[in-house]
Amino acid sequence: MAPTSSLVQDERLSCLFEELAELTGRRNAIDGRIVQIFAEIDRDELWAAAGARSVAHLVAWKAGVSPSRAETLAAVAHRAEQFPRCVAGLREGRLSLDQVGAIAERAADGSDAHLAELAASATVGQLRTALKLQPEPEPEPAPDREPDGESEPVPAPDPGPQPSITTTSDEQYTSWLIRLPHVEAAAFEAALQSHRDALIADWKQQAHIISAPMPSTADAFLRLVNAGRDAEATARPHGQRTTVVMHVDVKDRIASLHLGPLLTDGDRRYLSCDATCEVWFERDGRTIGAGRSTRTVNRRLRRALEHRDRTCVVPGCGATRGLHAHHLQHWEDGGLTELANLALVCPYHHRAHHRGLITISGPADALAVTDHSGRPLSSASLARPPTQPPPEVPPCPGPTGERAQWWWYQPFEPPSTR
């Protein structure tokens, strides 16, 4: 009875493995098509028009997957053109999304053929180990000297650590170059690191809700600025110096920062909505008055707003930190600073609304959020019962599962540029 029972188990297991190979191949091919769709969205930057903060956010939102899986899909979509053979293996059902995702996240340019061959028999863990063995990219070679033989100019001696701040501006951004002595720089770095640690702690708490990149040093710098701005006036008696001043021409609706560049219409509305900003109205170049002091939301109204909305009101977002109180009817158009005319939005979607990427209209009890084409945004994923047959692909047996002998493995080495 024992041999017969073992034979039945082997036959049953073979049938189950055969079905599993077929289903796995179909799943891989479907993932490959999903990657193609998001690669097109990434290439043409259509994710912003859909009201998403990034491609990974759009994947997690519309595909209804976890943030970690969304990051993998987004990574493969972003580098699909650099790894055509690996992506083709995914689309044909031979490779899994996790295999190609490990390659897309860490592999060097030009290693497509090498890694496509390795992935045909390697597990995800073995692929990650192989990617760790690849050599570090060589630094860019120094430019050659001019052929005329003239010597390079000798740089002027360093005058020492003199504090200085230099700013440059273009149409969209302002760049800051900050120079500090070592002691002051150490204190500045410690403050930035403290604020970044706090942002990362908040980010980890909501990582399962939204897909967002890890907070950067720039995010910590902005948090440091906001923390100083929100401190009590007694702690900074000259706090008015940190107020952003905006000048608005009421006739032509043209705004500029005080002693600074002109603002776009979106930035003008954004600053006059919930930012800590002092607005001065002008006509024909002459100041005619200051903005209404009731533009900003007081603490009591803010608590009521947070109790009502809890998160960013844009569907699919779910952000809970650093939210802005947005005027549904713009403040500069006569909108009142009251609960029925306010909604909580995250900084990204607040700017996206004022720049025309999405539309948030009220009143608050009948809120409507649409993308730039007027399509309503919904927090539900796009998943629905399939109406087409699954793709016809050969069964996927999966990796061989052999123990890797790393002593003979030759990692990919990019060709030397020298």
Automatic annotation (TrEMBL):
<dbReference type="GO" id="GO:0008270">
    <property type="term" value="F:zinc ion binding"/>
</dbReference>
<feature type="region of interest" description="Disordered">
    <location>
        <begin position="132"/>
        <end position="168"/>
    </location>
</feature>
<comment type="similarity">
    <text>Belongs to the Rv1128c/1148c/1588c/1702c/1945/3466 family.</text>
</comment>
<dbReference type="GO" id="GO:0004519">
    <property type="term" value="F:endonuclease activity"/>
</dbReference>
<dbReference type="InterPro" id="IPR003870">
    <property type="entry name" value="DUF222"/>
</dbReference>
<feature type="domain" description="HNH nuclease">
    <location>
        <begin position="300"/>
        <end position="351"/>
    </location>
</feature>
<dbReference type="Pfam" id="PF01844">
    <property type="entry name" value="HNH"/>
</dbReference>
<feature type="region of interest" description="Disordered">
    <location>
        <begin position="370"/>
        <end position="402"/>
    </location>
</feature>
<dbReference type="InterPro" id="IPR003615">
    <property type="entry name" value="HNH_nuc"/>
</dbReference>
<dbReference type="GO" id="GO:0003676">
    <property type="term" value="F:nucleic acid binding"/>
</dbReference>
<dbReference type="Pfam" id="PF02720">
    <property type="entry name" value="DUF222"/>
</dbReference>
<protein>
    <recommendedName>
        <fullName>HNH nuclease domain-containing protein</fullName>
    </recommendedName>
</protein>
<feature type="compositionally biased region" description="Pro residues">
    <location>
        <begin position="386"/>
        <end position="398"/>
    </location>
</feature>
<dbReference type="InterPro" id="IPR002711">
    <property type="entry name" value="HNH"/>
</dbReference>
